[in-house]
Amino acid sequence: MRREVQAIVLILIGGAILRISIGDAYLNYVKANMRIWLILSGALLVVLGGMALIDVLRKGRRSDEATPHDEPHEHDDGHGHGHGGPRSAWLLLLPVLAIFLIAPPPLGAYAAARDTTNGVQPREAKAPPLPEGDPVPISVSSYVSRAVWDDGASLEDRNVQMTGFATPNSEGGWWLTRLAISCCAADAIAYKIQPLEVSDLPADTWVTVTGHWVPGGGTKSDTAIPLLVVDSLEQVAQPENPYE
Amino acid sequence: MSEAPTEQARYRPGSLEILAVGLVLLVIGQRWIVGIFDDPALQTGATIFVSIIVQALPFLVLGVVLSGAIAAFVPASFWRRALPKNPALAVPVASCAGVVLPGCECASVPVTNGLIARGVTPAAALAFLLSAPAINPVVLASTFVAFPGEPMMVVARFIASLATAMIMGWLWLRFGKADWLRIGPRDHLVGSNSWHTFRLTATHDFLHAGGFLVIGGLTAAALNVIVPQNWMDSVAAQPLLSVLAMALLAVVLSICSEADAFVAASLSEFSLTSKLAFLVVGPMVDIKLVSLQVGTFGRRFAARFAPATFVFAVLMSVLVGWWLLT
Question: Tell me: the pLDDT tens digits for B273-321?
């Protein structure tokens, strides 16, 4: 790989990282607190690539092609390890293309349906009381933790409002779902709620639901799926951060 | 792409031309490419692939910045003074030094490469490579949060990881051969001043490791989508099999060491010892990391080092789990 191509690859991968982290697209892949690191590392790669490009332009392309020292990988040691740059560096274009051409959407119903458990056991079973509000907006994961691990104690006689997407249930109906990530989408964990008496929705439809908890979904088990009596249901746009 | 330098006059497309034509074709074909990715399984795979790369890239950049700084600003004599002269003693010291690199496994590969190039004895540098992603405070804190009511998990993870790192360092000292390790010549990375050296080293290390990170990310994303979820339920009940299954799962999933504790905790049907194996193996041997090792240290090295690390990481997990977690 020639030096100017190396420089362009660096600028492209840095640019792709900058592109998703300056907008909101990075939230489809990682947590919000990664943003500053993405911007810094993207900018650094662009600067490194830019300076490498200046080096090449200063020296001139002619000398680059004339001196064998600058292009030794064509007859390298078989590891693709030459001074100029390894062939494997071409692969860095794959994430660049994925980001610019495909822009993969956030994980949704397909990934949630593959996760056979429902959330993780919270650090403390006893949940603090819900904040004021009627209905009170809470996260899907908080509802699941409160209903399953605290026997719904903090949910009794309260109206709650939650936003999530529909994951079709193979036995009919759908689950109100939200995926939680702790680093990146590769470690996503699904939280699911069974809404009662609702009409079918296509997979990945985002909805805001108001309703209240009823017992019967099972407790103290990470396969229990809590129930929700739905009072109102509204289709909404996907939130800025698709994960919790 | 091999070029015939004898005849300069004849036109042959170089890498710049290939890049330009390829990009134009891809932009023209975008609709068609996006159409292929309409399938939910492929789309999920693509999202996981981009996520792994986006998550790992800042750590890889941190790693190459540190390795560039080691090459440019830290004199080789520093390491001779900082580490004990006796390599057998340098191994535990380097293992414990892993506490100070608050990152995941992607950062430690280029740093280790830089350390060896600077004359640090390979056994000590490799012990650092294994311990740093597993025992730094960020990782231990996330382990503590992920396992409510099981504080011993943090202690067990620390001890088992440190022990595995030291054993591998000493094994390298006893059995390792220098020619398994491919540390490329780095004379051409010495620039006209310190900043120039820093820039050349960081760029070189990034380009050499980056492609292998992509291979690792692709493989992990593919397996993530292909491996059926319920195969695990059937092995969870058998103690020894479940330890092996969790260790293999850690290799396959290639999750960042700062997040793996949450994933381990979510696999509740497994025993604590098998979860420990997941947490000890993951930061030391996973597809993304082995791929990075192949790119940085060569195939001959990775083919020996990674399986041996896997075996000892599993053994240490079983021993420490039996001691602390039952």
Answer: 999 999 999 999 988 888 888 888 888 999 999 999 999 999 999 999 9
Cβ-based contacts of B295 with chain A (< 8 Å):
86, 88
CATH class (in words) of the domain with range A110-235? mainly beta
Q: Taking a C-beta distance cutoff of 8 angstroms, is the pair B165, B156 a contact?
A: no
- Count of CB pairs separated by less than 8 Å, A with B: 206
Residues 208-227 of A with CB under 8 A from B: 222
Q: In which residue ranges of chain A is CATH 2.40.50 found? A: 110-235
Domain ranges of chain B: 43-324
The complex scores an ipTM of 0.88
Taking only the tens place, the pLDDT of each residue in A87-137 is 788 889 999 999 988 889 999 999 998 888 888 877 777 888 888 888 999
Q: For chain B, say whether A107 makes contact (Cβ under 8 Å).
A: yes
CB contact under 8 A, A117 and B14: no
Q: Which residues of chain A have pLDDT under 50?
A: 64-83
Q: Compare CB distances from A88 to B1, B14, B295 and report the shortest one's residue.
A: B295
Nearest Cα residue in chain B from A88: B211
Long-range interactions of B80-88: CB distance < 8 A, separation 24+? B80/B119, B83/B120, B83/B121, B83/B124, B87/B121, B87/B123, B87/B124, B87/B173, B88/B170, B88/B173
Closest CA to B73 of B205, B184, B196, B209: B196
Q: For residue B252, which residues of chain A lie inside 8 Å, CB to CB? A: none
Query: What phi and psi, each to the nearest 5 degrees, are found at residue A161?
Result: -130, 130
Q: How many CB atoms lie within 10 A of CB B237?
A: 11
**pLDDT attached to residue A69:** 43
Residue A5 contacts B, CB cutoff 8 Å: yes
| Shortest CA distance from A16: residue in chain B | B54
* 3-class SS of residue A151: coil
Task: Look at residue B150 and give its three-state secondary structure.
Answer: coil
* pLDDT of the residue at B99: 82
CA distance linking residue B50 with residue B214, whole number of Å: 9
Q: Which residue has the tokens 């030096």?
A: A3
Return the pLDDT at B303: 92
Identify the band that residue B9 occupies on the pLDDT scale cut at 50, 70 and 90: low
Q: What SS3 state is found at B252?
A: helix
pLDDT of residue B8: 53
Helices (H), A115-207: 140-149
Whether B182 sits inside 8 A of A187 (CB atoms) is no
- A9: nearest CA partner in chain B: B207
- Is residue A230 less than 8 Å (CB to CB) from chain B? no
Measured between CB atoms, which of B40, B51, B184 is closest to A184?
B51
